[in-house]
Amino acid sequence: MENRFVYADNAATTPVAPEVVAAMTPYLTEYWGNPSSMYSKGREARRGLDEAREKVANLLGAQPNEIYFTSGGTEADNWAVKGGARYMRKKQGRTHVITSTIEHPAVLRSCEALEREGFRVSYVAVDKNGILDMEKFKAELDDDTAVVAVMFANNEIGTLQPIEELTKLAHEKGALMFTDAVQAIGSVPVNVRELGVDMLSLSGHKFNAPKGTGALYMRRGLKIDKYIDGGGQERMMRSGTENVAGIVGLATALELAVSRLPDTERIRKMRDRLADYILKNIPHTIYNGDPVRRLPGNLNISFEYIEGESLLLLLDMAGICISTGSACSSNSLEPSHVLLSIGLPAEKAHGSMRVSLSHLNTDEDVDYIIEKLPGIVARLRAMSPIYPGEGK
Amino acid sequence: MQYSEKVMDHFAHPRNVGEIENADGVGTVGNATCGDIMQMFLKIENDVIVDAKFKTFGCGAAIATSSMATELIKGHTVKEALELTNKAVVEALGGLPAIKIHCSVLAEEAVRAALADYYKKIGREIDFEVPEAEETVCHVHEIPEE
């Protein structure tokens, strides 16, 4: 097979879709006004903003006035977790937050910030497949719980959490329910009304909108503390002149992503074919995460006796982009907290590979990975002082 | 984080990979929990390192520093090899990202560990500092208490 470029790291980011660029362009070249300006130039931009908000709301099962545009998923996560907790403390004196051990750093670090403010935070464990331990969750939940923050889908192992059930339990105790749906949006159906959540975050660049775009859904009637002070944009809740073109791009990309959801089966089949091939043909491999309750494009596998950064670099030389839970590729000395949380020993977390496929991937991409991967793993193992050999 | 061209060259085309049968000195440093283990094999004649090979489990920098270390000591005397510093390895590689400096330390230690093994085999007193693999400490992530 000829050399090719295979982008299989769609959980990290995605390319901006041409349709999205086309929808955005007029808002950069022609309708460049400030949406807060009353004259016609401003009204053009306002119209684009309003339409985008309505579109995003419809696609999520929300009302337009429940959508707040942000600079991305991290901002929305920070706002929901910190703002939600502080609001509940102010209103009801609640000082407890529940989250999981496998959340995105945007949520984990926000929880740690709350701990420094005097909140008590429970980090609920997950089982070996990465599903939240419901018994442990119930044991932590009480009348003091201000916010429950559990991600819809995990960014490393793709595990889907029972958000609807968690929401019911949280509401029974009067707590707010927030879910980080950054990885889920565009990959699986998400409807805020059906879920019943109070808040939900999303990030545009995960589904072919530009970076620097995102949103927080906040159910009507809930007004947590505003996040950015200033000129009062986003209904006084999130100041700063709106990123109109980016927001238009986000709405267009979400529309495209939702329209593609029926085709998810193709992505799932490609993912499963790759997983089956690896597990059958490369010895000493471990399948990380849940085989069923997971995002269709996500695959996470550990190759024993090799280290992930080396694997990433050699695959990159072959034209394949993946990511790893190894410490060495992440500017830290610690391997993935998610893989450690599902009980994987550090040395096996170091040797992990995450493949995240999207609608842009093809069967030929999977064929190419299948062609290149075994040789690269074998090459690194031949160099590894701890590799016991194939039959062992 | 970006590697220099030299690092990428030694990573993609590592020199002296493998084992030496009946080596005169073998040293292993690092541990799998931290994500890197280096094993160094030396063939020594008349106190001169006539051959050096390595096996490494680790990142790009770990492989590149192992490769460079073998290159830097081959053909040199034992005494000269003991003077190899991690800094020399880093310089020879055209620099390393700050977070990868520990890989060069490991390479220096691997050479010392192999030389200590050689001294032990020939019954010479070890008059230099020998790293102990078990002492290597890496920062393992602490999972917050639930």
Low-confidence stretches of chain A: none
Number of domains of chain A: 2
Name the poorly predicted regions of chain B. 139-146
Residue share in β-strands of chain B: 15-25%
Return the average pLDDT of chain B rounded to an integer. Answer: 91
| Biggest sheet character of chain A | 7 strands, mixed
Order of helices and strands of chain B: HEEEHHHH
Per CATH, the class of chain B reads Alpha Beta
Distance between the termini of chain B: 33 Å
Specify the CATH homologous superfamily of the largest domain in chain A. Answer: Type I PLP-dependent aspartate aminotransferase-like (Major domain)
Walk me through this protein's architecture.
- The complex is a heterodimer of chains A (392) and B (146).
- By secondary structure, chain A is an alpha/beta fold.
- Chain A folds into two domains: 6-15 and 262-383, Aspartate Aminotransferase, domain 1 (Alpha-Beta Complex), CATH 3.90.1150; 18-259, Type I PLP-dependent aspartate aminotransferase-like (Major domain) (Aspartate Aminotransferase, domain 2, 3-Layer(aba) Sandwich), CATH 3.40.640.
- In chain A, 41% of the residues lie in helices and 13% in strands.
- Chain A has 13 helices and twelve strands.
- Chain A has helices spanning 18-29, 40-60, 73-92, 105-116, 134-140, 163-172, 192-195, 244-260, 264-281, 308-317, 337-341, 346-350, 363-383; strands spanning 6-7, 67-70, 96-100, 120-124, 145-149, 176-180, 199-203, 214-218, 285-287, 298-303, 320-321, 352-356.
- Chain B is an alpha+beta fold and 146 residues long.
- Chain B has one domain (5-124): Sufe protein. Chain: A (Alpha-Beta Complex).
- Chain B has helices at 5-12, 60-73, 78-82, 86-92, 101-122; strands at 25-31, 36-45, 48-57.
- The interface between A and B is large, with 39 and 34 residues.
